Amino acid sequence: MSQHSADPAPNTALATVAAHRDWWREAVIYQVYPRSFADGNGDGMGDLEGVRSRLPYLRDLGVDAVWLSPFYASPQADAGYDVADYRAVDPMFGNLLDADALIRDAHGLGLRIIVDLVPNHSSDQYEWFRRALAEGPGSPLRERYHFRPGKGENGELPPNDWESVFGGPAWTRVTEPDGTPGEWYLHLFAPEQPDFNWDHPAVGDEFRSILRFWLDMGVDGFRIDVAHGLVKAEGLPDLGTHDQLKLLGNDVMPFFDQDGVHAIYRQWRTILDEYAGERIFVAEAWTPTVERTANYVRPDELHQAFNFQYLSTDWDAAELRAVIERTLEAMRPVGAPATWVLSNHDVTRHATRFANPPGLGTQIRTAGDRELGLRRARAATLLMLALPGSAYIYQGEELGLPDVVDLPDEVRQDPAYFRGAGQDGFRDGCRVPIPWTRSGSSYGFGTGGSWLPQPAGWGDLSVEAQQGVAGSTLELYRSALAARREQPGLGAGDSVEWLRAPEGVLAFRRGGFVCVANTSGESVALPAYGRVLLASAEVTEADGEAKVPADTTVWWTVD
Ligand code: GLC
């Protein structure tokens, strides 16, 4: 636990970062999954003190900001995305003083801190929900959630046909205080995650207060969990179809991407703008199209939204070009930066996605060709970091970590895994703790083992094994992030100039900068555009021609 004692000075200033206007328009934001980053107290579980101790590593990596997945008080039914107290740190991660120390230290190093906000649902252990259950039908607290009588003769059927994202019905029937089977409540995720009723004014009041609590703590922004889910269609209408998971992200649903959510974000924006410094909101909004995603980042709403269409695109030049163009076109009219992401805590790591044949989606259970996957992952990262806008990196991708596809059933913790049909049942594979050292207890993650087992050979991928090693994935990320800071052509912007390129190859120019990504599976000869700044694999040049090998991205500076 930290020895830090609270300093009366408000923790709002970034000590070493000169005011960089619009920093978020080109920021590289690193996602820390606190359970799996670094364990400061040796209990096998990552914590805030662990994160704090590794902040210098993140500064040296060259990222601008750190987004922390939830560390709030939680029974951990969904790894902290089930919050029981939005204003407290779970003891397994530390306490509020640790959070304060972490924010201060980050600011001192020039790093910004973004925290996760989970407004769609609470934990079933949140005080409102516990009281709603205990007080029985008619309790005013039930109105803050979606409680309904069941259908059927004795109320034995769920109130509508909605399915949980994690599989099974989105409704659970409660046992009333008198012991009889009673009403049902809505949970789009696990039963331990009841959905709030955002039509109730107390819910909005509570979240505005929670925003202020963390803004006063000095955070630089919020990642909004399930930002597309808060408002449900009037009357909670049936969908009239089963297998609803297939529709997620492909269609507007009565529980997702309803237009009513935008009024909430416009209100939140006015709160954020009251605070000094440029603080930001980023939406986790799964919508059918990038055009609908753009609605979340209109000038008076949120700043950024994750680009899941990009994350879901295979390693294919034509498909990548299409999604890049469409994204830039969708963001231009609203004036928001495009964002790019390849991995996060909910999907198979991109080194493993690209090791497998295309078309398998973002949850993959086979290791595939690891060498090929890593080669493509490195190329995909260089492409992503060359695009205009802001990019997200998920912890461990800078080490080229693959997904751990062979975790034994008995160690798995993902609630979706246990609900069978869930879309995301294999998320533990990207959550295995990070290797910091070649050997030793949990490869430097901590002194007390690791909550998910790390595979053999994990130490070969460690920070220690890659640091200072020319050509390592870690050094590739460091060089890319350093170049991004130095090259005026990189970072913010809303367009690229496409260059002619052979089939399977993407080539574009941004001012004095050219990026070429060869997805074709074969080496190609191209004009040498200028001086090679960086490449994900070796490029040879002769007589004004460059040979770009298969699955390689090259950056050039051009006069
Ligand atoms: C988001 C989170 C995911 C979580 C879900 C429910 O999609 O990223 O990890 O399970 O919301 O909160």
TrEMBL record:
Keywords recorded for this protein, A-Z: Hydrolase
Record InterPro entries: GH (IPR017853), GH13_cat_dom (IPR006047), O16G_dom_2 (IPR045857)
CDD domains the record matches: AmyAc_OligoGlu_TS
Name of this protein: Glycoside hydrolase family 13 protein
Upper taxonomic lineage: Bacteria, Bacillati, Actinomycetota, Actinomycetes, Kitasatosporales
GO molecular function: hydrolase activity
Domain Glycosyl hydrolase family 13 catalytic: 31-427
Pfam assignment, any one: Alpha-amylase
Similarity-based family: Belongs to the glycosyl hydrolase 13 family.
Listed SMART domains: Aamy
